[in-house]
Amino acid sequence: MVLFTAAAFWIAAWLELNERINRWTASGEFWQADELRTTLLALALALGWFSWRRWRELKAELTLRTQLQGELARALAANRQLTRRSLELQETERKHIAHELHDELGQYLNAIEIEAVSLRSELASAPAIQVESVERIRVLARHVYDVARTLMRRLRPVGLDELGLEAALQQLLEHWRVRRTEVHCALQVDPRIPTLHEDLNVAIFRMVQEALNNIARHAQATQVDVQLTASDAEWLQLVVSDNGVGMAAKAPAGLGLTGIRERAELLGGSCTIESGNGVRLTLRLPLSPVPLPEDPDDD
User: Fold this and answer.
1) Which carries the bigger pLDDT value, residue 164 or residue 188?
2) Which of 3, 164, 238, 284 is the most buried (most CB within 10 A)?
3) How far is the C-alpha of 264 from the C-alpha of 259, rounded, in Å?
4) Nearest-angstrom CA–CA distance, 58 and 184
């Protein structure tokens, strides 16, 4: 009934409008103004059809774009999950290898050195060539042990597990400076920082380690400062700065800086790089790393 009433009203309105247009155009019949009604109707229909067609195209394009954005978001989430898992497995494997080097190789090398010292004492009256051979064995065993210890520190710093992050960073700076005696290093750690999760400790250590490697390769610096502060109750700020040659304005970030940025973003943080009289690397990291969103396809 409602539809019938609406249709009747529409027809009546159309007839009324048609009658008024006829009266208005009748005086211009000589100029064919009476055909204006048909022209306007055709134009209105054409515009309506084109508008409807364009609306459908825009709707289809918007739907496709939304789908692509969703697929991209899922792909990025999956990539972040894969990257984080890869880093976790890498650290686990590094820790395992470091312990194996310490427990197996380190002990055997120590045993060889002790045996060499003992044998050298027993051969005190032996020919000099034999004593020298035993001494070379001891020196080589000590050298291999020192190399193994260096590898162990690179794979998994002992201080990080036994003494905490600050001690591990201090050891890192000291060992890094051994071959760079011309560089002065300073470490400042905010005492207000609470005990951090192991993953965050490892991430901070690796980012400082990579930043130092980058400075060694490119900076030509004589001063390096590392500062770790609690900017507020929920965020940490890590700053690694040097007084080196800086970076070219349009120079692309190297793999080291890219890796640092990726680690920060995986934790839900950010990374900024400022270059002038040296380079200043600033990282903002949450005290509680942001969990990655689950992939909807896994549900």
Assistant:
1) 188
2) 238
3) 9
4) 62
How many Cβ atoms are within 10 Å of 260's Cβ, its own excluded?
26
Tokens describing residue 216: 């060694």
Residue with more model confidence, 255 or 272: 272
At 199, list the tokens. Answer: 């993953």
Cross-strand pairs, 31: none
The pLDDT value given to residue 26? 57
Query: Is the pTM of the predicted complex or chain greater than 0.85?
Result: no
H/E run at residue 220: none
The stretch 95-108 carries a mean pLDDT of 81
Closest CA to 226 of 171, 270, 264: 171
Long-range contacts of 24-27 (CB under 8 A, 24+ apart): none
At residue 293, does pLDDT exceed 80? no
Q: Would you say how long the chain is, in residues?
A: 299
Amino acid at 238: L
Q: How far apart (Å, rounded) are the C-alpha atoms in residues 4 and 138?
A: 108
Q: Closest Cα to residue 93, out of 160, 147, 155?
A: 155
* 192 SS3 class: coil
Strand pairing class (278-286; 270-276): antiparallel
- φ, ψ for residue 158, nearest 5 deg: -60, -40
Rounded Cα gap, residues 296 and 251, in angstroms: 38
pLDDT tens digits for 199-211? 899 899 999 999 9
Which pLDDT value is given to residue 250? 47
- Residue 83: is its pLDDT beyond 80? no
d(CA 57, CA 72): 22
Please give the average per-residue pLDDT across 71-79, as a whole number.
Answer: 83
Q: What average pLDDT does the segment 75-87 reach?
A: 78
Chain-centroid distance, C-alpha 290: 13
288 contacts: CB under 8 Å, gap ≥ 6? 197, 234
